[in-house]
Amino acid sequence: MFKDLPDRKKNENPLNITAELSAVADVINILYDDATHGDKVKNDNVFSCEIDITKDIKPGSYDIKITATDHKDIKHVSSVPFVVKQGYSVPSIVSLEVKGNSYNIPILFDLKDPDGDKCSVTFEYRKKGGEWMPASISSKSGVIKKYRKKGKKSNKISKLPASQAVSHYICVWESEKDIGATKGKYYIRLTPEDKKTAGAALVSDLLKINNIKKSEGEMIYVQEGNFFIDKYEYPNQYGSYPETRMTFQEAKDVCVEQGKDLCTTEQWETAYLGNSENKYPYGNVYGFEGRNFCNTNGSYDAVSVPSGVYDNCVNDLGIYDMGGNVYEWCEDENGVVLMADRCYYMNPMDTSLMNIEDPTHKHTYLGHRCCKSGSDK
User: Fold this and answer.
1) Apex CA 355: angle with CA 349 and CA 358, to 5°?
2) Which of 164, 185, 252, 377 has minimal CB crowding within 10 Å?
3) Are 256 and 358 part of one and the same domain?
4) In b/e form, how buried is each residue of 174-183, taking b as 16+ CB within 10 angstroms?
5) Distance between CA atoms of 198 and 91, rounded to whole angstroms?
6) What are phi and psi of 48, to 5 degrees?
7) In 10 A of CB 132, how many CB atoms?
8) Are 206 and 220 contained in the same domain?
9) Long-range contact list for 1-4, CB < 8 A, 24+ apart?
């Protein structure tokens, strides 16, 4: 274990060796060379100790500090790898929240697998009193297999990392594809699995789904400037993922097709500030923890999320996700093309609210929203 320790001579005090094990156990252990405490051979200069590793310690290699004090009271310090191997653990869904009650319905779930294996999660729906059926889903996390055969659907997200103590994910149940323009009471069921086995299924509370009338895409009136702006990022539907990977002109054309215009930088900033003129939609102090603020770097999600899922990322006018999730195309009065907003992989403390961008670029983190004049009521 150590190369430069002085030889221990007969009748000298034995070496005193301790291991700082705070990385895996909240203790400092003495190591022994006396055929006790896990040591096999007495006085062979191989020092050992026994510790209990709890199940919540992840398998892997940890750096352990070893301190040896010789007979002259000189300390020798070294760092050694300490490998933890846990017994096989079964993956589990530890929490499940379903938001919304029509069309695209976000499902927020927490996945746990102490082994750290990549996992899959299968999604099913059931009408009250009916049978379980595969659910049509979309997600920005993991991989959803696509089938060429018409009518065959994949209701499984695979390759979901479970490297954290609890890993947080979102998917969307595209309920219209499964139940059409109807209404009723339904359950959602999630079943996790890794390469070895499936974990226990978790079933949602009873959901009241109403797909009879689809939202037309609400716009918010901004009195300061006399214009309307989309409540959510395009396609301006709660629970839908923002559409990205459009050029500036493609985004502009989409707005024009709807009888709107791409927002100008002046409109966008006016709407962002609202009446309160806060620095962020939720206030003047930046936050990122969990899903309590906006989807920016450091929050639960390292990808874009369905519009409106971050409940507190809304300003006093009722406009959502203007402080995170994806950037949005804008153009100033001089024809300069910019990306407004902040996005899921950038720290807002390191970026400005408006950034010049090549109008021909397409990015997974760049979307848009539309505006129209207040005179077009």
Assistant:
1) 145
2) 377
3) yes
4) bbbebbeeee
5) 7
6) -140, 165
7) 14
8) no
9) 1/46, 1/47, 1/66, 1/78, 1/80, 2/66, 2/68, 2/76, 2/78, 4/76
Tell me the C-alpha distance between 62 and 58, whole Å. Answer: 10
Do 126 and 49 have their domain in common? no
In contact, 215 and 232? CB cutoff 8 Å: no
Check which CATH number belongs to the domain holding 186 and give it. 2.60.40.3880
- Give residue 236's region: left, alpha or beta (phi > 0; psi -120 to 50): left
CB 328 within 8 A of CB 230: no
- Which of 237, 246, 220, 216 lies closest to 371 in space, CA to CA? 220
Tally the domains of the chain.
3
Domain that holds residue 282: 215-377
Beta carbons within 8 Å of 18's beta carbon, 6+ residues apart:
28, 29, 30, 31, 66, 67
Radius of gyration of the chain (CA): 28
The whole-angstrom separation of Cα 16 and Cα 310 is: 55
What's the per-residue H, E or C state across 261-304?
A: EECEHHHHHHHHHCCCCCCECCECCCCCCCCCCCCCCCCCCCCC
- Asked if residue 1 belongs to a domain, the reply is no
Cα separation, 225 vs 81, whole angstroms: 62
pLDDT digit string, tens, across residues 57-67: 777 788 888 88
pLDDT in tens, 259-307: 999 999 999 999 999 999 999 999 999 999 999 999 999 999 999 999 9
